[in-house]
Amino acid sequence: MDTISPVTQLHQEASAPRLQITSAKTLAESSNLTSIPSHYAFTTPTSGDQAVHADHDDSIPVIDFSLLSSSNPDQRSKAVSDLAKACQDWGIFMLINHGVPQSQMKATVDALMGFFDLTEEEKNKFLGKHVLDPIIYGTSFKASIDKVLLWRDFLKMMVHPKFHCPPKPEGLSEALAEYTGELRKLARELLKGISESLGLGPGYIDKAMNMDSSLQILAANLYPPCPQPELAMGLPSHSDYGLLTILMQNDIGGLQVNHGGKWVKVDPIPNAFVVNTADQLEIMSNGKYKSVLHRAVLNNKTTRISIPFSIGPSPNTVVVPAEQLVDGKHNQATYISMNYKDYLEFKQSRVLNKGLCPNQVKI
Ligand code: OGA
Ligand code: NI
Known about the structure:
The structure is a single chain. Helices cover 26% and strands 20% of the residues. It is built from 9 helices and 16 strands.
């Protein structure tokens, strides 16, 4: 294996072969890179496949947040039923008129780009070992054990109930504190609409999931240009762990969603968020809203950044299907209950795209 400086020496078992892992950004910036190192290549092609654009008559739903917060009851109930349809049919939607100022969105993207521009030494202070570490920087998914590495660097921070953020670059912490504060309000409103759309009343999820101490994680995924995007992968097919994920991205496409067994390209809409259903929503809705599978593919021209904000229950909440969605005969509870913190640890201990977590397994 070629080693390109600077390299990250990851922790290895004493007897294991020493593996040197470079960030995707450093690799992409190394001169004369015309092909990817073999440990980034999947055996079957990744993005150069059959992914399609959504049909005109079955396109990714668009939800207008201003209607959801409207004081006009007809507008609100139409928005709630649109939300129900979006969650049930797609598990993903574009959110427009969300009220988060563009200036804050831009400041967040710029500040996180600035983090990835720090020296490897600076970033490596946050090389994480455990899923519940408050700040984790890394490459791939779990670079020390991934068989094939992903062309992706990432930073993950717990931003609620307690706010964590690296001290550098200057301004990052302020930008993220403001941005995540806005998203917290937005996500809670959305969850009220979703709770109502399940016939549970607007306050059910907030109360049952103990949202005052909700666990919220902000991540940034950096996908540098890749010389062979059809062989490497940004993030393979997976579902997210929380209730909802609200994703911001620069205007470079790459996200794909599984819909009706096909991979559909999610073309960015300027200033819109992409919202997707996640595992805890599937569990609490007793499978009415499925946690949608999605993945991120690469390109060979431009760096893509995506910034997902995951909102979940409080760490100690034991998530169970809502009683009203369980009825003895037709709709028995099909999920094993587990607290959210344990769920996160269990999910992280598995290979990214392999198998379901135990509480998604039918009883
Ligand atoms: C994720 C994710 C998609 C993207 O971080 O969980 O699905 O487009 N990201 O980067
Ligand atoms: Ni995801």
